[in-house]
Amino acid sequence: MKALITGGCGFIGSHLAEALLDRGDQVTVIDDLSTGRFQNVAHLAEHPSFHFAIESITNEIVMDRLVAECDRIYHLAAAVGVDLVVRDPVHVLETNVKGTEVVLRIGARYRKKLMLASTSEVYGKSTAVPFAEDDDGILGATTRSRWSYACSKAMDEFMALAYHKQLALPVVIMRFFNTVGPRQTGRYGMVIPRFVQQALAGEPLTVYGDGQQSRCFTYVGDVVQAIVALSDDPAAVGQVFNIGSTEEVTIQALAQRTIALAESASEVVYVPYREAYEAGFEDMRRRVPDIGKIGRLIGWAPTVGLDGILTRVIEHMRSDDASTLAEAGASVAAMEGPVRPMGEN
Ligand code: UDP
User: What is the pLDDT, as a whole number, of residue 322?
Assistant: First the structure.
């Protein structure tokens, strides 16, 4: 199987690349390194079945060639992270709408199976937890830029389902619920890498709002297993699946658990949303998936709980700190070697 992973230098994409290589697939990654990091795949660079293009998915010439050569597309390239969404909505909308449009159009040209990464954010501020795939999403006003991300991914879903219906493109839509684990960066707002970094540095953990909002954090290894199994199952085509843990935790409790597991002396501070993001920012109080559908089809359920996730992220960040300088050197050296935009090959 020849897999093309868009956004393969990102957090989830790099874990997926490893899993596909492990089972013997050929893997080609395309990533413009806007939020992904070469360091995430540097350890794969010498693998004989691994290829990569540092390029934007909006480069249609490059995409045409990569899609023609692959058997399956895992479309993970997207601008994500609430902080990034609030700071740079133009980038978010262009990447998520225009980029996906190119991937779908070229995917349809060669009729390649396309696994589309979407998000639990499309349920918006609905309070009808747990969220099932056909439930309504409730998005806020267009003047609140947070909702532009949900809207862009909902548009991706509409486009993918339309290509499936009208042009027989085999698509599977995967709604991820707060995927976390080693290699995720806190730079774009994600709470677990931020809390772990703060706890390890002995700095206060910044809980936004009153900390009573809750999430279900899902281990990236579990998410990757779901992606691979769904991509292998012909019955998944044309459908939407929630992929998430059902272990719900408040952000306040998450902060306390992080401090305990990191054996940190940090305190918790409460930061109003308007200071953390912007005036009028809207968060959702609870976000819990109904995972009955994916369970019935492929028997998937998460295996790593919150403590297991936090322990792994803590260990990774401790070792990452020690090796940051070495890795930075290695990644620059590797980039001088085999990394080249495909169009120039
Ligand atoms: N959050 C927080 N402190 C931080 C970063 C995030 O309290 O330093 C909160 C954020 O407001 C949200 C939750 O943690 O309620 C999860 O945020 P994240 O950005 O990880 O994911 P989201 O579920 O918002 O997409």
Answer: 55
